[in-house]
């Protein structure tokens, strides 16, 4: 090793890194001849100095605070080349040499990423290290135990992967068998994937593990608990664990009381731990845009015969108490022109007028007045129903099927008709009052239209707000835009290379979003072939997508068990919500834009305050995946539909009242969820044997539900 040391010293001198050379000389003299294993001990007892001896001034100095903590925006690969040379040469003991690979974290090259596992720690001691830490944590005070227990899972995974990577297969197997039973129940699926990785070769192609390697697992721990852990690891000189903590974990330290087991359990469970507190600090304009004003013409059948202003006025008090669209500018709303929105056409104005009239007759829901539920059951759906949507005015329903067809039904007596052929259209008098009626071809009228074009199961469908267009997305990697005037495909949008799981139109039309197996969501405009924005950040499939009511934000749910909120304007991720224990399958914004409800395979509905970036409620009751969530038109009731064949109604007003969102809670994430699911549950409605895949409130607050009857 002396030769190596001399070589390193010469290299440092050639590179003009005098300071580093001095430090290394001092260390070597300090330890005399025994350079082999002991440098490692120095590395642990004073991590700020010896672990990274050769950081030139101004580079990566944050290591001084023990490597992690509030000031450590550390990149695992940030230490200079010289420091790596030193670590490679002088620390053959058990401090990790990074294998000389400088990797930019954003685009991980698999072999470079995995080479960080080139640790030559003694494989037989891994079980001892882990059980030593386990013993320490289990014997610590109750207040610290819950917080420190969060370390078990990420350390278990990294130590196992390290053993596998260094081809200690029997040790890895015994390590896995001994400790995998100690992990929290919500990591079972991940552990199943992990148990199949038993050879170095398996790790190369495995995306999940690559993610685990490249994204730091985030733990939120109070300063007291962190100091306790640090002291223990340094006393025990347990470098193997300390290195993993330094390299692969991001510890978000907060000042204040440690969190309780319940508080931690509510927030953890995602693929990469919790969200950093920084992630939810950005300002979000969650308010609604001002509605355009125009006069409402009086119809003959208005029995009351009010004055012209009467109509909207009549509706206003109804909506205002829940804080939905009002005439005043919402202080939390984005500027009206923050993103360009399409102009209102005459037909849109007519539709808004219709909407206001319907709203005037809307039923006011509440615990005493629950909605009627009308269930559309798809019978004999041998093609396998995979997606449903209903138009805003509840006149049409669409089903996407596993046989790659899209089927559109009219659910009113009015049949679906196509526009006449060009030759017939030229004969029409364009000036006549009923020209819109005359252009439709009566011969084509039918209750059902089938749209062919996809070459794989259709996983998502969405009607445009003006009911002229329909979107569908499929396993074939495309999103298609269909005309509901001609019932033909207008465009195929190609951008995703893998199945597209969901798509949705913006509430203002023109824009739409799609999310798929390639882990990104894309924002499109109907008249562009290429996406306008690509939202990248999820660690697994993007399973569902939703526009915020003001169209400035998009929420995406993913199989990585997190929900992200993206800013349409600049593509930034402005919120990360963790807490679900399974892939997310449904999202719903409250009509006033303040709250988000999410449902997942864990059978829980979680409620989020978007402005503060906090979880504010948990609704337990479903026993299977929740595929549908919808707020009533005024936001008083939340309906959830699940694979357990039930629709449940929850009291949304009560769930969101008296929220404790003070600065302390926001700063530390000490959330106290009331155990009041049973008080909030207003009703449970069973179907005979039909999983609920879609819910929709009509403009008068009748609840429509849909699903395919399954005979088993």
Automatic annotation (TrEMBL):
SMART domains: WD40
Localization per record: Nucleus
Primary subcellular site in the record, as a coarse category: nucleus
Biased amino acid composition, Basic and acidic residues: 319-330
GO cellular component: transcription factor TFIID complex
Compositional bias segments (type: Acidic residues): 296-307
PROSITE patterns: LISH, WD_REPEATS_1, WD_REPEATS_2, WD_REPEATS_REGION
This protein's UniProt keywords: Nucleus, Repeat, Transcription, Transcription regulation, WD repeat
One GO biological process term: transcription initiation at RNA polymerase II promoter
Residues covered by region (Disordered): 55-76, 296-348
Superkingdom of origin: Eukaryota
Biased composition (Gly residues): 58-69
Keyword DNA repair in record: no
WD repeat start-end pairs: 378-419, 451-486, 493-524, 535-576, 577-610, 619-651
GO molecular function, one term: RNA polymerase II general transcription initiation factor activity
Pfam families: TFIID_NTD2, WD40
Domain (TFIID subunit TAF5 NTD2) ranges: 121-249
Assembly information from the UniProt record: Homodimer. Component of the TFIID basal transcription factor complex, composed of TATA-box-binding protein TBP, and a number of TBP-associated factors (TAFs), including TAF1, TAF2, TAF3, TAF4, TAF5, TAF6, TAF7, TAF8, TAF9, TAF10, TAF11, TAF12 and TAF13. The TFIID complex structure can be divided into 3 modules TFIID-A, TFIID-B, and TFIID-C. TAF5 forms the TFIID-A module together with TAF3 and TBP, and in TFIID-B with TAF8. Component of the TFTC-HAT complex, at least composed of TAF5L, TAF6L, TADA3L, SUPT3H/SPT3, TAF2, TAF4, TAF5, GCN5L2/GCN5, TAF10 and TRRAP.
Chain's role: The TFIID basal transcription factor complex plays a major role in the initiation of RNA polymerase II (Pol II)-dependent transcription. TFIID recognizes and binds promoters with or without a TATA box via its subunit TBP, a TATA-box-binding protein, and promotes assembly of the pre-initiation complex (PIC). The TFIID complex consists of TBP and TBP-associated factors (TAFs), including TAF1, TAF2, TAF3, TAF4, TAF5, TAF6, TAF7, TAF8, TAF9, TAF10, TAF11, TAF12 and TAF13. The TFIID complex structure can be divided into 3 modules TFIID-A, TFIID-B, and TFIID-C.
Family statement drawn from the similarity comment of this UniProt entry: Belongs to the WD repeat TAF5 family.
Name by which UniProt lists this protein: Transcription initiation factor TFIID subunit 5
UniProt source species: Sapayoa aenigma
Gene: Taf5
């Amino acid at each position: 090793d002396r030769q190596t040391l001399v070589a390193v010293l010469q290299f440092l001198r050639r590179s003009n890194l005098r300071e580093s050379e001095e430090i290394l000389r001092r260390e070597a003299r300090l330890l005399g001849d025994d350079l082999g294993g002991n440098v490692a001990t120095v590395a642990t007892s004073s991590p700020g100095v010896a672990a990274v001896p050769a950081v030139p001034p101004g580079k990566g100095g944050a290591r001084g605070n023990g490597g992690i903590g509030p000031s450590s925006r550390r990149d695992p690969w940030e230490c200079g080349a010289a420091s790596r040379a030193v670590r490679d040469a002088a620390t053959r003991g058990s401090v990790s040499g990074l294998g000389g690979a400088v990797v930019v974290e954003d685009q991980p090259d698999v072999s470079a990423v995995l080479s960080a596992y080139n640790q030559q720690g003694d494989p037989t001691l891994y079980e001892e290290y882990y059980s030593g830490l386990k013993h320490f944590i289990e014997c610590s005070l109750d207040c610290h135990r819950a917080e420190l227990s969060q370390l078990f899972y990420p350390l278990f995974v990294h130590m196992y992967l390290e053993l596998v990577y260094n081809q200690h297969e029997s040790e890895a197997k015994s390590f896995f068998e001994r400790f995998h039973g100690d992990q929290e129940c919500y990591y079972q699926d991940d552990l199943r994937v992990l148990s199949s990785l038993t050879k170095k070769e398996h790790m190369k192609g495995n995306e999940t593990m690559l993610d685990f390697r490249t994204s730091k697992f985030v733990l939120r721990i109070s300063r007291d608990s962190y100091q306790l852990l640090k002291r223990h690891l340094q006393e025990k000189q347990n470098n193997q664990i300390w290195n993993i903590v330094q390299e692969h974990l991001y510890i978000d330290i907060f000042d204040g009381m440690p969190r309780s087991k319940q508080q931690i359990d509510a927030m953890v469970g995602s693929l990469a731990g919790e969200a950093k507190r920084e992630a939810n600090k950005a300002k979000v304009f969650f308010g609604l845009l001002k509605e355009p004003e125009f006069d409402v013409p009086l119809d003959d059948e208005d029995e009351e015969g009010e004055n012209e202003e009467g109509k909207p006025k009549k509706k206003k008090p109804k909506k205002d108490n829940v804080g939905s669209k009002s005439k005043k500018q919402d202080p939390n709303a984005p500027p009206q022109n923050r993103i360009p929105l399409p102009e209102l056409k005459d037909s849109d104005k007519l539709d808004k007028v219709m909407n206001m009239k319907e709203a005037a007759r809307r039923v006011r829901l509440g615990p005493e007045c629950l909605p009627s539920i009308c269930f559309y059951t798809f019978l004999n759906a041998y093609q396998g129903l995979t997606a449903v949507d209903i138009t805003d005015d509840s006149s049409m329903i669409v089903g996407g099927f596993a046989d790659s067809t899209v089927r559109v039904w009219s659910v009113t007596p009015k049949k679906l008709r196509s526009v006449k052929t060009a030759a017939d259209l030229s004969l029409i008098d364009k000036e006549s009052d009923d020209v819109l009626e005359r252009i439709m071809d009566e011969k084509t009228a039918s209750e059902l239209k089938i749209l062919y074009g996809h070459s794989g199961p259709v996983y998502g469908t969405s009607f445009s707000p003006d009911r002229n267009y329909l979107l569908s997305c499929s396993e074939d990697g495309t999103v298609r835009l269909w005309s509901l005037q001609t019932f033909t495909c207008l465009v195929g949008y190609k951008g995703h290379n893998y199945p597209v799981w969901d798509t949705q139109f913006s509430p203002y039309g023109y824009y739409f979003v799609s999310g798929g197996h390639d882990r990104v969501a894309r924002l499109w405009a109907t008249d562009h072939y290429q996406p306008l924005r690509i939202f990248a950040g999820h660690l697994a499939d993007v399973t569902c997508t939703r526009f915020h009511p003001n169209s400035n934000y998009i929420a995406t749910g993913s199989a990585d068990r997190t929900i992200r909120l993206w800013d349409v304007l600049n593509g930034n991720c402005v919120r990360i919500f963790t807490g679900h224990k399974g892939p997310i399958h449904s999202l719903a914004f409250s009509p006033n834009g303040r709250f988000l409800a999410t449902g997942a395979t864990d059978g829980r509905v979680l409620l989020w305050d978007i402005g503060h970036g906090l979880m504010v409620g948990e609704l337990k009751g479903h026993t299977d995946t929740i595929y549908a969530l919808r707020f009533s038109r005024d936001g008083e009731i939340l309906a959830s539909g699940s694979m357990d064949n039930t629709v449940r109604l929850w009291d949304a007003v009560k769930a969101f009242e008296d929220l404790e969102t003070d600065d302390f809670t926001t700063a530390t994430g000490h959330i106290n969820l009331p155990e009041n699911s049973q008080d909030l549950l207003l009703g449970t409605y069973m179907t005979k044997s039909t999983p609920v895949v879609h819910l929709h409130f009509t403009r008068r607050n009748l609840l429509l539900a849909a699903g395919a009857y399954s005979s088993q």
